[in-house]
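This part of the workshop introduces the protein records we will be handling. Getting from the letters to the C-alpha cells is the skill we practise here. The record below serves as our worked example for the rest of this section.

…
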Amino acid sequence: MTGVVSRAVLLVGVVLLTAQMCGCTAYVGGDDGFSVELIHRDHSVKSPFYDPSLTPHGRMLAAARRSTRRASALACSYAAATGTGSPDGGVAEVISIPPLDFLMYVNIGLPPTRMLAFADTGSDLLWVKCSNNGTADLPKAAGGAPPRVVFNPSKSSTFGRVDCHSGTCHAFTGTGVSCDAKSNCKYVYSYLDGSETSGVLSTETLTFDDAPGGCVGCRDRPQLQVAGFNFGCSTSTKGDFTGDGLVGLSDGDFSLANQLGAATSIGRRFSYCLVPSFVNTPSILNFGARAAVTEPSAATTPLLHSDIAACLTIGLESVRIGDRSFMLPQPPRIIVDSGTTLAWLVKELLDPMVNELTRNIKLRRVKSPDEEIPICYDVSGVGETAFGRSVSEVKLGLEGSGVVTLKAENTFVMLQEGTMCMTLGEAHKEDGGMIWGSIAQQNMHIGIDLDKRTATFASVDCATSYQWPSPPASSL
C-alpha cells in the first residue's frame, strides 16, 4: 500500500509541475481533439525538400541512408545538464539527431507565423529558428536547403521569455541554470552527431489548424490555440538543421503532448498513421480523443519508465516467424522512433530472423545499393506483389501479451528498380536499445497515451481506413 501511495503522490507532483511549467490557457475548437498532416520530407510534393529529379526508389534510398546515420548515433542516454553553468547555458544531450523524415505545420505567435518543423518522437523540446533580438537573421543553411521561415519575436504580441530563476528553467536544464544579462533562461540542446541548437527558453501562443488539406471548402477550420507554451527560441544552430524547427513528441516534460495535456482537456495522448512511402496520400497525426486506437486488431503494451527521458520505449518479449519463435535471455527494450526509417535489432535477434525470413525466398541475391542494407533480391521477373507473398509475416510479442504483425511491406522495400531489400539492420554495439523505425510502422495506427503510460498498435490501411476528420457543418 505504501508503494501505491508513493506512486500516487509522485504522479500528482508531476502533473502539478507540468501545469506550472505551461501556465497555459487554450481555446479548443472541439472536444474530440485535432489532427494535422504529416509531410514526408522526400516523398511528398508538399515538402520543400522534395527532389523531382529522383525516382521514388531514389527517394527511399536517401531516406534509408539517413536512417543509417541516425541509428549509428542513437546511443540512448539522455544526459542531464552539465550543472557547471556556462556562458552558453546548461546542456541537455538528447538521443535524437537531425535527419528526420516527417514534417508538420505549427503556427507561432500572434499574429501567427506559419512554420514547417520536423516531428520527432525521439526528443521532447519544441523549438523554432528565431531572429536574433528581432533583427538579425540566422546564417543560411548548408547543403543547398530551400529558404526557411524564421520567427521574429518582436512582431508577436504574445511572446515572452522564461526567467532563469524559475522552476520552468530549472526543469529544462536539470541541475544547472544559465542566465543572460537580463535574467533570461538560456539553453543549449546538443545532439549525438555533434549538432546543437541554442537560444532562449521562451513562451508563446501556438495555433494548430485542424486537418490542413482535408477540409475542402471550409471557411473557418476548427483550431486549437494554446497560450504560454514553453518553447525554444533558437538563435544559433550547428549541424544539419534544414527545417524551420523541431516538434518534440517524446515522453519529456516539454514535449508537445505533455504541454497540451496540461493546457487543455484533450489529455496527454497522440496517435499517428503512416502511409507507405509510394502512396500519394498524407499521413496523419492526431491529438485528444481522435488519438484513441480502437481497431479490432489493437494490441496495447506499457510504456517503460527509464532514464531515457526522450525515448518512447516498449518491451519486446518474443518474435515469431512461421512456426519458429525467437527469444533473448533478457527481454529487450525497443524504441518506437518515427525519425528512423529502418528497424535496427541486436545481432542475437537479427540473425535468426534473417535466416527465417529468407528461407522461402528462392530469388537471386543481388548487390545492395547501400552496404548497410546488405540483403537484396532481384524481383524484376516476378514483381513486388508476388515477392511479398513469399515473405513470412513477423509476429512481435509485446510486453503485456499484445501481438503486432509485420507484413512484407514492413520488412522489405524496393531501393532501386527491380531490387527489394530487407529493412532490418544490426544495431551498433554502442546503441543502448533497438529501434522500431518508420517502415516497420507503416499501415499501423499507433497510439501513445502518456496519461495511461501505454502504446497501442493496430494494423490498418492508413490511406483508406483512416480518413481525415470531417469538417463541422457550420464551416461548410
